[in-house]
Amino acid sequence: MKNIILYLLLISGTVLQSQTKTDHQKPWVISDGTPFVPKDSYPQFSWDTTPTYYMFGDKERVLSSDELKFIAERTHFICIEKSHGYEELGAAELGAKHEAAAFKAIKPDMKVLFYFNAALAWPYTSYSKDFTKERIDSSPQLKSFLIENPKTGELAEKHTAFLFNVLNPDFRDWWVETVAKGVEDSGCDGAFIDQMHGNVNLMKDKKEDIEIAMGEMMGNLKKRLGDDKILLANNANSDSAKFVYPVSDALMFENYSAVHYKKENLLSDWDGMLKNAKEGKVSVFRLGVEGHDRGFLRSISNEEKYKVMPKISQEKLEYTLACYLIGAQPYSYFMYSWGWALADGSLVDYPELQKPLGAPKGAYHRTIPNGWEFTREFEHANVWINIESRKAKITWK
Q1: C-beta separation of 68 from 351 below 8 A
Q2: Alpha helix (H) ranges present in the chain?
Q3: Alpha carbons 181 and 301: distance in angstroms, whole number
Q4: How many CA atoms does the CB half-sphere of 368 hold within 13 Å?
Q5: Tens-digit pLDDT profile for the chain (397 aa)?
């Protein structure tokens, strides 16, 4: 199946023209006027249109050739989610390997990340397949890496997954080697690491130790991956991830719930993107559609969701995109979806994201001191937003 898809893509002439490596030498300017110097390992970046990041998975199957082409035409930067291709190929690293090869066949400079979790023991890779109720007792070493629920004495769970104990040094060694092996086996360009909290809610008295251990584990992973690979840490801009932040190349602002639409949170994210840029780090800004009304999504079936959400997401795009544009810096990427499955937005066409944008002409302007109305000018767009009333207008030139 893999060879057939790659062959058809190549002979059909669908190899996409990529920006050249000279993009890495462009004098990208941060909103404070200082230069941004990217690493050679970073994905391509351009202000020509809205810079986007895609992250998706389909547990049942890999992408079709049309789906590959659709996504490749819209981004240089993707992550293959935790269970992608699991049922078709038998292991998530094989799903990531299949897609990495397929994307690079049509867009050689595509940067593809391998997903792994730092807190939840998802059983979708061949390395973690024993983290299930049926198999865990036959793997005593892996079982020793997990946390017990202090109230029941049973293995603790969240979202049906067992929980890693980051305070176990043997676990940290295993985890680093496992993630590195996943990146190598899949042929990916780095790793997206989810969940920086270290399951502190079950060990609140060890908060500081957990923070230090997380930083050590992520630091060792970065050393193991090397400078030519990208380490993206999810939500590592928080104070609780202060030891993770310095060793990460890229940070995601995940923003999956309504609280992240609060005006104070958005202002903090813009400050975070500026900080990341000044540190030479990549930012991924995701303000999920589900954050508008998470209760609504929970009240409908998946079938209904996939029918109504593309239209709702089109209606919500202008405000969400404006939230990104006000704070965007060089090597800040926009992600737009209502979840992490392939059907949660990755295959929806958003024409606004393909409109000419151009570089920002400066930092955002706060129209009233301590107010919540902001403007920013780009070469081909003017952005106005009020993050208190949640109104926005993007005027395309």
Answers
A1: no
A2: 2-11, 65-72, 86-89, 92-106, 140-143, 169-186, 207-225, 263-278, 294-299, 302-327
A3: 37
A4: 7
A5: 544 444 344 434 445 544 434 455 577 999 999 999 999 999 999 999 999 999 999 999 999 999 999 999 999 999 999 999 999 999 999 999 999 999 999 999 999 999 999 999 999 999 999 999 999 999 999 999 999 998 899 999 999 999 999 999 999 999 999 999 999 999 999 999 999 999 999 999 999 999 999 999 999 999 999 999 999 999 999 888 999 999 999 999 998 777 778 999 999 999 999 999 999 999 999 998 886 666 677 777 778 888 899 999 999 999 999 999 999 999 999 999 999 999 999 999 999 999 999 999 999 999 999 999 999 999 999 999 999 999 999 999 9
In whole angstroms, give the CA distance from residue 341 to residue 282.
Answer: 23
Q: Supply the DSSP string of 274-318, one letter for each residue.
A: HHHHHTT-EEEEE--GGGT-HHHHHHS-HHHHHHHHHHHHHHHHH
Whether residue 234 contacts residue 194, with contact meaning beta carbons closer than 8 Å, is answered with yes
* 3-class SS of residue 372: coil
